[in-house]
Amino acid sequence: MIERDTTHSEGNLQIPSATLKGNQAYELLRREIISCRIMPGSRFTEAELMDRFELGKATCRIALQRLIQAGLVSSMPRHGYRVTPVTVKDVDEVFALRIALEPLAARGAAGRVNRLHLERLETACRVRIPTDVGNQIDFFLEANRSFHMAIAEAAGNKRLYTTLSGLLDEMTRLVALGFGVQRVRPNIENDHNLLIEHLSSGDADAAEIVARRHVETFREMVMEKVIMSLRDSAALVPLGAEFVGAEL
38 CB contacts (<8 Å, ≥6 apart)? Predict the structure, then answer.
C-alpha cells in the first residue's frame, strides 16, 4: 500500500497527510485496545495490523509509535508488538487513586454542579440500547465517564480534572475486560442519584462519603470480574496468528 505525502491545512499549520492519517489510526487503535476489542496481551505484527485495519505502512508506524508512548503497546524486536497486559495490580493502583481523588472532587464540587446536566448523564448511564452486551458496556462507560468528569470539572481544580481523566481512561479498559468478557453490564445501583442530591444541596461531607463508598464498591465489582475474565479465558484473543494471555 503506497501513501502519498500530501499536506492538510489546519489554520496556518500544514500537517503532512501521513501524520494526519497516523493520528487518526492511533485514535482508532486506542479505542480498540481500551474497549478490549483487541485484548490485553495480544501479539501482532505490523503487517497483520495493516491488513486488519487497512492501514498504510507510514500510517501504521506513526500510530504504533504513539501507542507505545501511551503505554498501551510494547515493541518486541524481531517478534512484532504486544498489547500491554492487564494485571490485578493495575486494578489496585487505579482504584487506590480514584478512592483518594474522587471524594476530593466531590467535596470541591458540592454546591457548584449543574444538577440537570448530572441528571441527564445519570440517565444515560442506565440506558439499555437494543444491541449486544459489548456495545451496551461501551455506551455505559462513556456515560459513566462523562458523569464523573462533570463532577471533577465543577470542583474547579484543573490538575485534579486532568489526573482523573487519565485514571478513568485506564479504568475503561479494566471494566471492558472484566464485564465485557463476562458478558454482563455493570450495575451502579443508586449511588449516582444520592451523590447528585448531596452535590446539589451543597453537603460536602455527605458527597465525599458517598463518592468514596461508590468507588470502593465499584472496585470490588471490577476486581471480581477482571479476575474471572483472566482465569476463565486467560484473555486469549488473537490479532494475527499468535495467542497470548493477560496476566494475573
Answer: 29, 32, 83, 237, 239
CATH 1.10.10.10 segments of the chain: 7-83
Short-list 17, 147, 95, CA closest to 9: 17
7-83: which CATH topology? Arc Repressor Mutant, subunit A (1.10.10)
State the Cα–Cα distance between residues 127 and 196, nearest whole angstrom: 18
For the entire predicted model, the pTM comes to: 0.78
Tens place of pLDDT per residue across the chain (248 aa): 445 555 555 555 555 677 888 899 999 999 899 888 898 999 999 999 999 999 999 999 999 999 999 999 999 988 899 999 998 899 999 999 999 999 999 999 999 999 999 999 999 888 776 666 556 777 888 889 999 999 999 999 999 999 999 899 889 899 888 887 777 777 766 889 999 999 999 999 999 999 999 999 999 999 999 998 888 655 444 444 343 444 54
In words, the CATH class of domain 88-233 is mainly alpha
CB 53 within 8 A of CB 29: yes
